[in-house]
Amino acid sequence: MADLIVLxxxxxxxLYTQLYRILRLRILEGQYAEGDAxxxxxVLRDEHGITRSTVRKAIALLVNEGLVRxxxxxxxxxxYAPINNSVWxxxxxxxxxxxxxxxxxxxxxEQATEDGANGPVLKLVxxxxxxxxxxxxxxxxxxxxxxxxxYPGLDIFDFEKQSLYQVLRDxxxxxxxxxxxxxxxxxxxxxxxxxxxxxxxxxxxxxxxGDVFSSSDELVERTSVIYSPTLExxxxxxxxxxxxxxxxx
Amino acid sequence: MADLIVLxxxxxxxLYTQLYRILRLRILEGQYAEGDAxxxxxVLRDEHGITRSTVRKAIALLVNEGLVRxxxxxxxxxxYAPINNSVWxxxxxxxxxxxxxxxxxxxxxEQATEDGANGPVLKLVxxxxxxxxxxxxxxxxxxxxxxxxxYPGLDIFDFEKQSLYQVLRDxxxxxxxxxxxxxxxxxxxxxxxxxxxxxxxxxxxxxxxGDVFSSSDELVERTSVIYSPTLExxxxxxxxxxxxxxxxx
DNA sequence: TAGTGGTCTAGACCACCAT
DNA sequence: TGGTGGTCTAGACCACTAT
Lengths: 249, 249
Known about the structure:
The structure is a homodimer.
Chain A: H1 15-28, H2 41-48, H3 52-65, E1 68-71, E2 75-78, H4 90-99, E3 103-116, E4 119-132, E5 135-147, H5 164-172, E6 176-186, H6 190-196, E7 205-214, E8 219-227, E9 233-238
Antiparallel strand pairs in A: 1-2, 3-4, 4-5, 5-8, 6-7, 7-8
Helix pairs in contact in A: 1-3, 2-3
The first copy, chain A, binds a DNA duplex through helix 3.
Domain HTH gntR-type (chains A, B): 13-81
GO molecular function (chains A, B): DNA binding; DNA-binding transcription factor activity
Pfam families (chains A, B): GntR, UTRA
C-alpha cells in the first residue's frame, strides 16, 4: 500500500513527530500486528524522502513508549501487552481502546469553584473508563484544579462532553507539555467505592499527584489521579546507557 | 579546568555513554550546581573532539533521567529535586547519596533456596537505605528470586557485603539491561513494620513487581520492591512529541 | 551476501535568548 | 549580534541476523 499520509516539511510539527504519529496509529490499529516488524529504517527513509536520522528519531519515540523494540540484524518489532499503559499518559489508553472499537467514557462527578491562594479555582472530578457493550468500566478517578483567573469562563463548559485539554487548547491556546507527579497510596473511600465498585479487596489505591505544565513552563493544572486496580500499571525500564548497565555503577 | 577524563573511541562503550557518565557524575557531585548551566553543546563538542550529534545524544540521556532541562537560546540547566528518584532505578539514588557523603546500606533479611518450576531458586530479601550519622533509614524492601540452575553457586555469596548485580556481572557475565514491572499496592505487614517502622499511618505501600532481563533478553531475576513512604516517588513526564501534545490527540 | 539496526561524522538552517 | 538548543541532511563504518 502506498502511503496516503505524506509528511509536510513546512508544517510546524517536526518531521519525526509526524512520522511517529503515523507509525503509532498503524500499530494501535493493528496494521502492524504484535510480533511483526514494522518497515525497516531504510524503507521508511525512502518512502518518505527523509534521512535515516529522522526516521530513527521517530522510532525512538515509539521505543520510549514501549510500543516497539529494536533488534540489530532483525528489525523493529511491535511488542506491547494489551492495555500497556504508561501510567502517566492516559491518552495512550484512550487511543488504544478507541482503536479497538471500545468507547472511552468520561463521567463528571463534581464541578465546583473553590477559593485558592491566587483567586477562584475550578475543581473538576471526573471518572474515566471504557464502555464495552453495555458495561462501563471505570479505570481512573481524576481530580483537577484550574485557576479561573488564568482561564476565565472555563466553568461554563460541559466537561462531560468536551475534553478539558481540548478546551484549553482551542479557547485558551494552552497545551500541556510536561508533568511533575508524585506517586502515593490512598485509602479506599466512599468515592472510590462508588466509582470502582466494592468488590475490590485492596488496602489502597495507586495515586499520582502533581502539576502539569505547558511548553512555556506555565502551570496548567494541578491534578490528582487515582487508578483502578483493574488497570495494570506496567512500567518498562531500559537502561539505555549503551552497554546494559544501570546508571548506578 | 581541563578534562581529566578523556573519551576513548575504541572502548566498547559508545562515546555518548561515556560523555553521559562524565556529565552525570559532575552533576551528582555538585560540580554543576542546581540551576546552573552545564557547558554548551558546542563547547562539549570541541572539548571532547566529537560531533554535536553525539553530545546531544549524551545530554538526551540526562534529560530522560530528569537531571537537566534544555532551553533554546539559554542553555542546558541542571534541575533536580533532592532525592529525585525515578522509581525503577534505585541506582540513581545510591549514586546521589554517596555523592553527598551518606552511606548506602544493605541489610540481608533472608537468604533461602526454594523450589521453582525450573529447579531450585535463590530467594533474597534485602532492605536498602542510607546511614546518616548513627541513624539508618531504610527506603526499600527488595525481594529477588534467581535461578540456581542458571547461576550455580550463587547461594554461597554474602549479599550483605556484595552487590547482587556486581556478582552476576563478574562471575556469570550477565548484566541487567531492561525491566518489566507492574505497580501495585501492598498492605502493611510484620516485615514492612520491622523495616520501615511502625510510626507510619499509611493504608499501604507502593510496590513494583516484575522481571529484569539482560541485554540478550534472558531473564536475570524476578523481583518485588516495596518502597518506603519516606521516599518521594517523583515521576516526570514530558510529551516529547515536538509540539507539546500528549500522544492522545 | 544482503539487509538490519547502532554509532558517528561534518556540515546546514532555524527559532529563540541575552547583550 | 553572537550564542544557545532544535531540526535535518547525506553520507560512513560497524556488528549482527537471515539465507
